[in-house]
Amino acid sequence: MEEKLLTKLFEIKDSFTIDVYLKHDGYKAVEKAFQEMNPESILAEVKNANLRGRGGAGFPAGVKWGFVPKGVDKPKYLCVNADEGEPGTIKDRYIMTHNPHLLLEGILIASYCVGINTAYIYIRGEYENVALGLEKAIAEANAKGYLGKNILNSGFDCQIYVHRGAGAYICGEETALLESLEGKRGNPRLKPPFPALVGLFQSPTVINNIETLSNVPKIILNGAETFVQTGLPKDGGTRIFGVSGMVKKPGIYEMPVGTNLKEIIFELAGGMKDGKTLKAVIPGGMSAPILTADEIDINMDFDSLAEAKSMLGSAAIIVIDEDTSILDVLKIVTKFYSHESCGQCTPCRIGTKWINKTVQRIADGQGKIEDIDNIKRLAKNILGKTLCPLGDAAALPILSIVNKFRQEIESYIGN
Amino acid sequence: MSPEFSDKVKKQVQDILAHYPEKKAALLPVLHVAQQEFGFIGEDTERMVAALLDIKPVQVREVVTFYTMYNRKPVGKYHIQVCSNLSCSLLGGAGLLDFLLKKLNIGLGETTKDKKFTISTVECLGACEQAPCMMVNFDYYGDLDEEKIDKILDNLK
Ligand SMILES: Cc1cc2nc3c(=O)[nH]c(=O)nc-3n(C[C@H](O)[C@H](O)[C@H](O)COP(=O)(O)O)c2cc1C
Ligand code: SF4
Ligand code: FES
Predict the structure, then answer these.
(1) A18-230 belongs to which CATH class?
(2) What would the pLDDT profile of B90-102 be if each residue is shown by its tens digit?
(3) Tens of pLDDT along A179-223?
(4) Which structural domain, as residue segments, surrounds residue B11?
(5) Atom of ligand 2 nearest to the CA of A188
(6) DSSP H helical segments within A234-280, as ranges?
(7) Which CATH fold topology does A238-319 show?
(8) Which pTM does this prediction carry?
(9) Residue whose C-alpha is closest to residue A245's, from A83, A93, A85, A87
(10) Which one of the ligands is nearest to B121 CA?
């Protein structure tokens, strides 16, 4: 059953306006946080909710907030990750266009909890129209006193700014995002130091995904226990699954964490388009290793997918049909990563290019049988040897495709 | 003649600067404004932006060359960017790209003689549920087919 925690208002007319939001418990969580709670009890609630990051890595939000040191005299920052560059991912756009105030309220509570007065929403450059909508929502919240100085007489100040990126997938990686926000190339930083200690403008910084923060008002209003009960004990709440590719009804489906993948594809998304046969599914954005048709009876939560050697990532499901050549998929995957590598690490910069060239050669009918093992060797040379996770995010799906569809790839290579 | 921002844009830039504790952080947004104003980011625009933010022109160049959305050369009045990533390709995106190129009689990355259209490809636009899709300037168009593309182009004057 669909469980609408975040997407409940999406169907309502003008759900993006503050008036509609206020009619549906809007900003009630902030009132509760200010009046009945304090930063410590908010942190405890978010920790108990086991809210895991919706951006990709699944790190518990409460634990992350807890890393920010107290009593430093530098300003602290919240960076909200709206880069949404992971192919297949569409969910954050829906939240921002349909219920931006839910996000703003989440940002506000997180900021209050950690002691932050300035938040930046880093949004991918292509979403210009979405960014304009967010700015309108921020202006509305300012006008009604939910942002700005001394919010609701709490003595707490908070301002939110929208910052547009300019077309670079790597800027979704949290430290590349910080560099980009500082006006530089999006080259990921070496960690440690972690952003919680040294982040934006050398100050303690929290980085969270749009969907992660949008869950916070619900946790505060309904309590951690309800949130955990909706999802799983170690992975609370819902996920907004984005389904695209060869299905009858592509779109977003909000379901409890742990919902079965087969059910999402064949029941919610209506099954295969044009009577096609299922070949493979990418279950968590392009960086997630591929699943074959007989591997999709699986629960969509971080731990279940990790066990199947894939990942939940951004919960973006891409459905591939039997008529699609696996070589075409591999070509697109390898072209993407070779295009998006920032170039700082040799294995990632060179490896992704070589793999892409090799795949292209096979596609052009010039492949040799050794090429397949060469691709695997190149991918393994990236794995674990790079500065940021993009390297692994490229190598793992490539290896999964080559391993699971080796026979088909061989069939494209002449004798 | 070196480019200069209009007074309206200067005010916009001042507003942007107020968002950050360091001027340099305004670089990406200011470049967006500059591109909006001049259509592309040329060398003289780079120098002007550098002076405005108290940084070296090379620091601006580094950024302009890193991010795909900054055009270093003029583009047509309508910049068509067709998604070439997976979900769009599964639903026929590559064929539609060919259709567009043939229709406008240009190659990928090129601009029509009347300077009206430029076509490029782009990685996933974050609108995969509407695959195949494309962007014309900042407007998204989804669930495309040849007929729909014909209509869209007809409406772009
Ligand atoms: C190459 C790369 C791209 C990423 N892109 C995004 C993105 O577009 N949006 C996002 O929220 N997180 C993205 N992430 C994950 C972020 O680095 C970070 O983990 C996340 O924003 C933290 O927020 P969360 O804990 O709320 O998920 C990306 C990571 C990598 C390595
Ligand atoms: S792994 Fe790739 S994207 Fe990440 S820092 Fe190295 S070169 Fe850049
Ligand atoms: S694949 Fe085309 S918009 Fe995502």
Answers:
(1) alpha beta
(2) 999 999 999 999 9
(3) 999 999 999 999 999 999 999 999 999 999 999 999 999 999 999
(4) 7-66
(5) 5
(6) 261-263
(7) Ubiquitin-like (UB roll) (3.10.20)
(8) 0.98
(9) A87
(10) 3
